Amino acid sequence: MNLVVGATGMLGSELCHRLTARGKPVRALVRPSADPAKLEKLRQAGITFSQGDLKTPSTLEVACRGVTTVISTASSTFSRQAGDSIQTVDERGHLNLLQAAKAAGVRHFIFISFPPMSEDCPLQQAKRKVEQGLIGSGLTYTVLQPTFFMEVWLSPALGFDIANRKARIYGAGRNKISWISFLDVAEFSAASVDNATARNAVVKLGGPEALSPLEVVKICEKLAGHQFTLEYVPEEVLGAQKAAAKDPFQESFAALMLSYAAVQPIEMRGTLEAFPVKLRSVRDYAKAAFGLN
Length: 293
Prior knowledge:
Layout: E1 2-5, H1 10-21, E2 26-30, H2 36-44, E3 48-51, H3 57-63, E4 69-72, H4 86-104, E5 108-112, H5 122-135, E6 140-146, H6 150-153, E7 160-161, E8 166-170, H7 182-191, E9 201-205, H8 213-224, E10 229-233, H9 235-243, H10 248-260, H11 269-274, H12 282-289
Parallel strand pairs: 1-2, 1-4, 2-3, 4-5, 5-6, 6-9, 8-10
Antiparallel strand pairs: 7-8
Helix pairs in contact: 1-7, 3-4, 4-5, 8-12, 9-10
């Protein structure tokens, strides 16, 4: 049995479907407040549920019973609810899950994190603590560190509005980023259950090519046949936002934007030899956003 934590989220739900497509039994940890429509889609795919919360250790003990592999995609940054915080979910909640997994005899724990950032922040501190706890736990571990999700960072929510030909650029926009699709992260996560290369490994994940934000804009402009209106957010402004942050979420988000402005490409050749995943390109994503597929 495979337990997926974060199963109703964007990445977690896709992961559930990829596992069932491989013939893997899946149990999803779901909160009482989970969206009924999302639960129904999972139920129709043959996924069973264990009700619980990362903040409630007793529910994790129940969820882990009979489980061989735990895969966690959960984060308070995407689906925050009452009582959720970086400390209670991303850090302490995952350490609760790790303890429950060990007690239940789980053999393999797959944790979705992100690569180290130059700008420290509460979210990065939480991720690194969980990674360290997992690596030292005695369990077989896999830490997947995908870089910037194109569906998040090249979306209207963060100012990259393809439909309206507008793009917000953090920093100068010239550094190359190995944008990755959450669909491919789900595929790597599902493949890690049986792939020997993933065992006791930390794997950085990126897309098929490294493109600067301005190069992404050029691709979109060519597909649209129109120029984009650009809004630049200088690194000095981002640094000031981080310094003035009033809570860990604000500080962490500012740090992520600063990392976007300075991150380096991820070399994927060796990883793709071990995981033969056909990666989705930024052009593929943009074509879908323009309805050109």
